[in-house]
Automatic annotation (TrEMBL):
Pfam family, one: FecR_C
Keywords: Membrane, Transmembrane, Transmembrane helix
Domain of life (superkingdom): Bacteria
Domain FecR protein: 103-191
Protein name (database record): FecR family protein
Signal peptide limits: none
Keyword Transmembrane helix carried by entry: yes
């Protein structure tokens, strides 16, 4: 068998005969072929640099270019190796790019079904990231914003936020993380919340909230968050958080002049009628408003 046929057979991982194996070992470039094979087996995505590996191949084989016949053979091998290495790179890139991102725009809400049939409903300007591979054994995701979870029963389910981690086995709960505002409400089952290295258990009907490092544990009579029905509700919440939520739901900019935005607000506003919504958040606070395009200016009455 010709040398190039032996090389091709070896690259295809086909069994060489005793004579072929001996002929292969006697090739001048045998050690180079083995080094390339070992480098491919040690390949780990994404650190693998295809360009650097090809340069290494050329350096390893450059010493053989004195002989014209072998030089021609080497050039052929380099092209084969390039295809081989690029193929491996494509394989690892394809199978490791398994992170899925779901997000919402201003005034948008969407529901996502995860691989275990868990349902996640995202509020406006929110996002989740999770890995689809081996989901049943590794149920965890990252949340930025607000989401309502109806978790299918199974292994532990973790929600990671910049303010803390929420863990459950199967339940219904809401997580909101907006800047220095962090809130978890349990509607069914039992929720574990870890914040600042402290863990608490929330049964159904309880909520945990942190605003500016001030912790509040209290009750709720709701069976699900009102925002999934297009209404935002608040209980003893600083007014500035109501205004930010209003901006997310209506895609407007609120200009608050000479208003105490730390004053607590209890109430709600709808997401379907901006005039009604503005009245809901201004009348209780004894404020008036003016609209100019996408700008809303609030003033004292």
């Amino acid at each position: 068998m010709k040398e190039k046929d032996i090389i091709k057979k070896w690259l295809d991982h086909k069994q060489l005969t005793t004579d072929e194996l001996e002929a292969f070992k006697n090739l001048d470039a045998y050690n180079s072929y083995i080094k390339i094979s070992e480098a491919a087996r040690k390949f780990e995505s994404p650190e693998y640099n295809i360009q650097e590996e090809l340069e290494d191949i050329q350096r390893l084989l450059s010493k053989h270019k004195k002989r014209s016949f072998l030089s021609s053979q080497i050039n052929i091998f380099i092209r084969i190796a390039a295809v081989f290495v690029l193929g491996i790179g494509t394989y690892f890139t394809f199978f490791n790019e398994n992170t899925i991102t779901e997000n919402t725009l201003v005034s948008e809400k969407i529901s996502i079904e995860l691989p275990d049939q868990t349902i996640v409903t995202l509020n406006s300007l929110s996002s989740i990231n999770y890995k689809n591979k081996d989901w049943d054994n590794n149920r965890k995701l990252e949340l930025d914003g607000e989401a309502y979870f109806k978790v299918a029963k199974g292994k532990k389910f973790d929600v990671f936020t910049s303010s803390g981690v929420v863990s459950v086995l199967g339940t219904q709960f809401n997580v909101k993380q907006r800047g220095d505002y962090f809130e978890v409400v349990c509607y069914e089952g039992l929720v574990s919340v870890t914040h600042n290295n402290k863990t608490i258990k929330l049964p159904a009907g309880k909520f945990f909230r942190v605003i500016d490092d001030e912790v509040l544990n209290s009750n709720t009579s709701l069976i699900k968050p009102l925002w999934i029905e297009n209404r935002s509700a608040f209980s003893s919440t600083p007014y500035k958080y109501i205004l930010r939520e209003f901006e997310r739901q209506y895609n407007v900019t609120i200009i608050a002049k000479n208003i105490d935005q730390d004053k607590l607000f209890t109430g709600n506003f709808v997401h379907s009628d901006i005039q009604t919504a503005l009245q809901s958040i201004t009348i209780p606070m004894r404020l008036k408003y003016e609209m100019n395009g996408n700008n809303v200016t609030l003033n004292k009455q």
